[in-house]
Every structure is written in C-alpha cells, then in structure tokens.
Design a protein that fits this description.
heterodimer, A: alpha+beta, CPE0013-like fold, 2 domains, five-stranded mixed sheet, three-stranded antiparallel sheet, 10 strands, elongated, B: alpha/beta, FAD/NAD(P)-binding domain, 3 domains, seven-stranded mixed sheet, five-stranded parallel sheet, globular, FAD/NAD-bd_sf (chain B), FAD/NAD-binding_dom (chain B)
Chain lengths: 120, 421
C-alpha cells in the first residue's frame, strides 16, 4: 500500500488530500471537501496533466508578444517539449483570441491557442 | 467641462466590473479613465491560467478573463479613455486628468469609484545591504518584461518572497530556460496560494526556503550572487547559517501596496492595516459618493473576488447617483477585528442600506489550524465556523444577512476573531 499526500489545486481552498494506492490503483481519497478533490487526486497520482501557458512573438501588430495556452491539459511530462516547440513560433497580426497558433503541440494531440487578441 | 454620473479611476478588473455593474444598474453616463494603452490592467501580463473559477466556472488565463469584461464594456458602450493619467480628485469630485490628445482637463463626477489597484513593494522598502547592481527586479516587472515585451531578465534566478507573483514567475522563468535556484521566504509560511506552490515550485523541483532572507547582494555592475541566511522568530538573521547562491537575477515578490496617493489627496480616510480606504457596507469611503473596490481597497488573491466586490461598488455608486446622499442619520454597526483577524472590509455596516446579503472579507495574521472563524454580535457568538486551516496568504470571508442583523436592533459591534479549537 502506498500513501501519497497532495494539495488539491482544483480551487483556491487547497485541501490537503491523502490518496491511498494499492498495486497502482487508487483505493481511497481523503481530506477533500468536494468531488473535484477526489477527481484531482485520482488523476494526479495516475496521470498528472497541466494547462501550459506561454507567449509567442507577433509581427505587424500593436503588441510584440501574444499570450497562448494549450487548449486542453497535456501530460505533465510533456511541458518542456511543449514550450520548446513554441520557442521559434512567430505569428502575423491580426490574432484573435482562440485562434490556433500551433496544432498538435509536441505530439500531444492538443492545439496551442491564442489567449489575447492583437490588432494590426 | 464634461460631466459624468460616475467616473471610474482605473480600467483593470475592478474598474471594468464596477462599470458593467453600474451600467446594468441603470446609469448611462459612465467614464473609465485608464493610464495604460489598453483596458484589463495587470491581467494583461498574467498569462497563466486559474482565473475565473468562481465567476465563470472555468479556468481562464488573465487576458481571457479581462476580455470577458472588456467585451461587456464594449457591448454596453461604456466610455473609456486610455493613456490617461488622473492627477487629482477634489472632495467635490472634480477629476483632473491628462493625456496626449487633450492635455490637462477636468471632469465633474457625481460619483467616483476608486479602482487604481496596487503596486509592488520595492527593494528600497526592504533594507537589504549590499551593492545596487543591475539584475534586481520586482517579480511583476520581470513578468511584464517576459510576457509582454519578450525579454528575459536573466538566466540564473533567486526569488525573495513567496507571494503569488514570485511563485508564478519561478515557473515562467523556468519554462523560458532560466534556472531558478531557490525561493526564499522570510516568514515561516508562504504568502502565496497553495496551488501556486504545488504547480510552480513542486512541479519543477524548485526549493522553497521558509524563514530565510537575503542578507547580502554581491556584484557591482551586474548581480553576481546573493547570500541567504535563516532568520529567528523575530526575523533576525542567525549567524552561521549564511549560504551563497550565484545568480544574475534577483526577483522580489515581497508584497503589494494599494496605490492611494489620489485617495489620500482628496481626504479619503485610510485604514493603516490595509493601506486602503476605510469603507462602509456599500464600499463607500468617508466622502459621500466616493467608492473603492479591488486592490486599491485591500490586496486580493483572487480576481474573482475583485470582480464581485467591484460589481457591488458599481451597483452602490449607481444607487447613490439615483438617490443622493445616503450617509446621513444612519446608525452604523462597527466591525471589530481582533485575535488573529487583522482587518475587515467593510469596517462599518448600516443595516438599512445593506443588501440582503453582505460578504465581509478579512485576512488573518498567522497560520491557525483546526480553528473557528467566529463573529460576536456584541456579546453573543452568532457565527462559529470550523476551518481546517487559515493562513495570511488566503483571504477569508463571512456572510452576513440583513435578516440576521435585524434580529439585533441595538447591535453596536460585530467582533470577528479566530478561536482555537
């Protein structure tokens, strides 16, 4: 039996969670004050994922950079591959919030989208 | 001279939400004055996600959260001026501002909403000995350089202070290829949200040294390194615990100060604990028709609560414009923060003016485990809520209802405190 202590990040409460695993399976989660804590703990100990946010350069716009994010969360282990893939990306203004900046980042199947609009 | 019913100082999250709420409360003549070149305030540089869980039930980045409110401001055709600096406001709500197109100009407002936000505490406030080389930035300045202007301030980083911006920048600098060696926190607990410690430090193996501070800065032209030392309970460095970290960049995330020069100048009474205005249940200051909300009132952790608070200020300002002075001849209940509770916002309540529900927000002065948040109506304990943990880094709140308060017609003081179990 393996016990993992986690801090829930589903909301600002930050509940102290305890997940108990047996043979790689989660058998119990305690310390959560809502359902999201249970879901978070089960996922975090078996398949941790993160939304990754960053910026890419823009040319011809009112700003030099546009903020971007992974449209969905990606495996935690892929974070650095994701930011490396964004390193040399440059986009042309105008950019609209929600525009796909890079599709299927680092083989995750998840797109990078703009989180801000940049006018010409 | 132009006249508006409501002039809002600041177009960040507080100003935007206040404007939308005032407009939806039936006031058409509204003007937002913003000193930056775009609306949205600090959210524009907060490109990380986690905003909006309370307001929109989804996790948005800062710019996305701002855009939701900016769209509403545009749709509602609320007027705003960018690149415009407010220089002065008089007690009679005469606003003096300036920008490149109009020069210096005056606007007469019926009501003013203060929504100027806050600024970062700087190195000068810390008395760190040593040279003054290049490479020392406030965490927010570094955030703006990296996220908006596309510059990396350095490659090897030490962060002093574990406020949220420092934690967020620890991750951001790491993702951009820098080595963040350590985050040092003077207090025995972090000043940031737990989720930021998990996602910004733990995820990347960045050590957090509690009860540690910077005692020396090395480097004449450019920063070469800093010396950390452990501190005792009084915050004094313990001799023999010094440890040198070579680095070219030191980020300071050591607190935020509400930006109240204008408020002070117009005669708004300040709360020395929050460094923000003293306000009543309507978020109205001692000057009738002058309201405050967001980080200029007290520093928040979550923008969702800023929006909520600002919406309330907007609604109340609208009511003031419609109904005029509501401060006179009303009995006020005083909120008294004691035993672990540092302050409350609001500081006074008038039952006749309050809505059906009122959120009282406050911060605690230390970490308390298995405690109770209690409110005493004069001598009687009315609220007694169990909490696993409360900490200075996370704002707390209690809900009061009009119904509750009407049961105590002679109530003079509501004492809010932390009680150990």
């Amino acid at each position: 039996m393996e016990v993992r202590n986690l801090t829930c990040i589903s909301c600002p409460m930050g509940c102290a969670l305890t997940a108990t695993l047996e043979g790689g399976e989660v058998i119990s989660v305690t310390g959560n004050t809502c359902k999201r804590g249970d879901i978070y703990a089960r996922k975090e100990v078996t398949n941790p994922t993160r939304i990754v946010t960053s910026t890419v350069r823009v040319t011809g716009g009112t700003a030099d950079m546009v903020s971007v994010k992974t449209k969905e969360d990606i495996p935690k282990g892929k974070i650095f591959d994701c930011v490396t893939a964004l390193k040399d990306v440059t986009v042309q203004a105008p950019v609209k919030i929600g525009d796909v900046i890079l599709s299927d980042v680092a083989g995750t199947g998840v797109d990078i989208i703009a989180t801000k609009s940049v006018e010409v | 001279m132009k006249q508006y019913d409501i002039v809002i100082i600041g177009g960040g999250p507080a100003g935007l939400a206040a404007a939308v709420s005032a407009k939806n409360s039936g006031i058409d003549s509204i003007l937002i004055l913003e000193r930056d070149k775009e609306l949205g305030g600090i959210l524009n540089q907060c490109i990380h996600n986690g905003f909006g869980l309370h307001t929109f039930q989804e996790e948005l980045t800062g710019p996305e959260y701002a855009s939701r409110f900016i769209e509403q401001v545009e749709d509602l055709k609320i007027e705003y001026k960018l690149n415009t600096m407010v220089m002065d406001i008089t007690e009679d709500k005469l606003v003096t501002a300036m920008n490149r197109e109009e020069g210096l100009f005056e606007i007469q407002a019926k009501a003013v909403i203060l929504a100027m936000g806050c600024r970062e505490r700087s190195r000068g406030a810390l008395n760190i000995p040593g040279y003054r080389p290049a490479g020392i930035y406030s965490a927010g300045t570094a955030q703006r350089l990296v996220n908006m202007e596309g510059f990396m301030p350095g490659r090897e980083v030490v962060i002093l202070g574990s406020g949220d911006i420092g934690l967020i920048m620890a991750r951001r600098m790491t993702l951009e290829g820098a080595k963040v060696k350590v985050v040092s926190e003077l207090m025995p607990y972090s000043g940031g949200l737990k989720r930021n410690i998990v996602q910004c430090l733990d995820d990347y193996g960045i050590p957090l040294k509690l009860s540690h501070t910077v005692v020396d800065i090395k480097g004449k032209e450019r920063l070469e390194g800093v010396t950390l030392a452990e501190v005792d309970q009084k915050g004094k460095p313990i001799s023999g615990t010094e440890e040198f970290y070579s680095c070219d960049t030191l980020l300071l995330s050591v607190g935020l100060i509400p930006e109240n020069e204008i408020s002070g100048g117009m005669g708004v009474e300040m709360n020395p604990v929050t460094s923000g205005p003293k306000v009543n249940e309507s978020l109205e200051t001692n000057i009738e028709g002058v309201f405050a909300c967001g980080n200029v009132l007290h520093v928040h952790d979550l923008v969702d609560f800023v929006s909520e608070e600002a919406a309330s200020a907007g609604k109340n300002a609208a009511a003031y414009v419609r109904e005029g002075d509501r401060l006179e001849n009303e009995k006020e209940i005083v909120l008294n923060p004691v035993e672990g509770v540092r302050y409350t916002v609001p500081g006074t309540i008038c039952v006749n003016r309050m809505d059906e529900k009122l959120t009282v927000r406050f911060r605690v002065g230390g970490v308390f485990k298995n405690c109770y948040v209690s409110a005493y109506f004069d001598e009687e304990r009315v609220i007694h809520r169990k909490r696993q943990v409360v900490a200075p880094g996370e704002m707390e709140q209690i809900q009061l209802t009009k119904e509750m308060l009407l049961k105590y017609p002679d109530l003079k003081t509501i004492t809010v405190k932390i009680e150990e179990a």
